Amino acid sequence: MKFFLSKILPASLLLGILGTNLYAVELYPWQLTRDSLLLFEGTTFRYTVDTPENEGLVSTLLPVAELKEQLVRSGSGAYRWFASDGQEKTEGTPVNGDYLQSSTKKRLPVGIRKGALPPVIKLNRTTFTVKTAGKLMLDFYAGQRSPMTTVRIRIPEGIDVTLDNTTVNVIGRGEVILRDLPKQSIGRTGTNYSYSKVGDVEIHKEGKHGSLLVFKNLDFRPSNGPDIQLHINGVALPEKGNYTFEADYVTSEPEVLYSPVATATLEGVATVADFTRNALRAFTCKKDWNLSSASFYWTAPRNAESVTLLQSGDKGKTWNPAKAEILPDDDFATASRLSPNQLYAFKLLVKGGDNPGESNVVWYYSGLQDVKNAGVKGDGIADDTEAINKAIEEVNRIGGGILRFTAGNYNVRTIHLLSNVWLHLDADAVIQGLPNGDAPETTWFSDRAYRSGLSPTDPRPYSDPENYLTKQDVGHTFFRNAMFFGERIDNVKIVGTGRITGNGHLVTSDKVMNNAPDKRCDKMFSLKLCTNIEIGGWHTGKDMWYDPQKDEPYYMEADNQRNYDVSNMLRIDQGGHFVLLATGTDGIHVHDTYFGGHDTRNARDIYDFMACSDVTVTNIYSRVSSDDIVKPGSDCSLGFTRPARNYMVRNIVGDTNCNLFQIGSETADDIQDLYVDNIYVLGANKAGFSISTNDGGHIKNVYLNSGKTGAIHSRSVMRRTRAPFFISISNRGRVLGADVASFTFTENGSVRKELLVTNSDIGQVENIVIYGVDIDEVYGGSSFRGGRWKAYDGSQNKATPIIAGFKLPDTADVEGELTFRLPNGLHTGYIKNAQFHDVNLLVKGGHPSEDAEACPPEIGVGRYNVGDLKTQPSFGFWARHVKGFVLDNCRINTEQKDGRYAVVLDDVIGAEIKGLQVEEGITEKEKVKTIRSKDVNIK
Predict the structure, then answer these.
(1) CA-to-CA distance for 199 and 216, rounded, in angstroms?
(2) How far apart are CA 876 and CA 843, in angstroms?
(3) pLDDT tens sequence across 853-879
(4) Are strands 644-656 and 613-625 parallel, antiparallel or unpaired?
């Protein structure tokens, strides 16, 4: 059945549901009326990825040709542009006295005034039932970026807004009541940051002019969707009529500019105006979803004699009572026994009382909607991008539903995901990337001072402590250059057993912005400040594991039999730099996915969760990738930092050129409460299990094989890992407000000249507890470079399990002395409470006795990886700068005799080693060597 609403539904029926659209508004640099076009002239900073550094100051008055194109794209129409003397203009700059001419020869004078670009305000609904308490949401979008911005929002008379009944969310930082806005955290920063609070707010009561909300000192340099979201609770309109909201703003840089006023109107009506269908919701999507019913809610009408739920199966032409019983004071109902694959309209009919009449109309499609019915070809030839995006918009417009991709090859550039729209891929459906996806976003700052490869001696990334674009790699900094993009959306799923492939058009290199514009997409899924996301196959409730003989995953049946049928899995390959880059996104569920089954090329990171919370990752098999498979972190790419917590990770199997599981390296804010069970490392050229805080974040409560995610079905396995464990601290300090200075100092007889962060505290790692791991073939043996696995031949890198805190050099070892003191006064970052229980470790060995005297360097600004620690003095565990260290019933062995110690504790305060088994004869050294350590208990 066709479901293109814009073609089949009367405009009067669409009006009642426009408020459900949850996608970004378009901002235009004009105000267009029936009689004139008003333009605004000023300056701003606007950088594309091609803009040379320090050349982003531009006029906001666009050229004539660009304005004409935007007028067409906005739907305003095609116009000819004339100068005051009647000569047509096709290029150049607009001036006062110009005019537009429409196709009907009507003239529209062009006026230009000094000012900021027009803002937009948007209400979540167009009508509201009078004398009935409810909630109203308002989004404000500034027309241009600026720090220290002032925003004024006028709430009309009749709507009571207070510091306690209204919440605000500024640039996606999170929702707080107005009273708490000055106390809201600005995130983690160094001391050289101009903001000490998110902003201030005042409410001025102005009688018949309503209430004026004045927000001051807001940082609008970042752009993350709505700049201000207001939720006003307890709204009760006193009478019918129109209620007009107004908003404007004032910039501070590069010049003070006053914007025109934007308006939005809410109509007070007597009838029920908040009749709403519940969108489909579930933590895990079902393969066979029962769509034969729909549920609804509303504010109960007052003193009604009866309430009837009406339904229409012919797009509102005729109406009949639905199969639902409703009492007059009910506020919910369910319509059941709906015919499959049909578009329904629903409304309430209220008789008697204060709210008689018909409610607004809502919509529901009782089935999976085939995208091919919306003009999508799926023939592997056509570019299906626009048709798919239009289909998503239409499903979003009716309150959500499921779009089905049946058998076919769907070519796409960038798909724009929207709230409440689920994508369902049949087994023979392939969504494949094309070149020329969306361009990286335009920004207030330039990112050119840092794009990748942080150097220990290059201060440019820190030169502007407020420039959030230079605080993480370029892949993390931009979001829109992706195959699928979503911003500030909720309740989205991409599920099924089909295949999604970048098709060689998603870039993996950090030099992506050096490419031609049509080759700058480097992400498959990019999600920014979203909620409730699911990506995966069909979840069977079974655990996935790995068969080393077959080199394939399988599912574990209840009778312990192995089921090699993994056709329930979603297939993904050639995902670019990131298969999934989720930033500031909460409630993520990724599961039952097979990576690299069709093609192992063009695959770097699999899952990067930056500043995300409430994340579940289950049953993931990655044949091979060039970077981390599961990576929680927290960076500055939103323009502020955000803590992350609550991860449940289970049954992860893979081969990687980096780490199978890594916290970091981006750690600008806290990351806590992570539970990982059942991992199988097939190869890792860095580490199997890595935890690194580099930018000041506090990493706390990380557990491997605790059973928190479910029963432990197998011991975890690590094979071909350069370092099985890498748990570390550095003070790289990639955080807003951080400063660096260059120092020359002596360390272990070697002279080092590099940057040290001077005003941002060293991060913390605390409560790392690991159980039940079998480790062998300890060398960097990933198959990333080709060939399934190359046996160890002495050329591959290898390292010890590393637990290493961080210490700044002593002032006596620094030329000219250490000239700073960190804010908290702590110049050593100790790892606290690191525990290893029941770990079996078989290493290669073969090191000479001289290596027992090795003293690895401290890691720092540009040196924070396993390789930066050179050779370790132990072949088992090496711990330095640790408070509270436990080895419990661990076993250490080597394939060759080794001249180093089994365990070295250097500056370890409080250690308990019990039941340690070291194979006899593999070393002539003592089992446990202590250096500058105390309170070490060996049993």
Answers:
(1) 6
(2) 8
(3) 999 999 887 778 899 999 999 999 999
(4) parallel
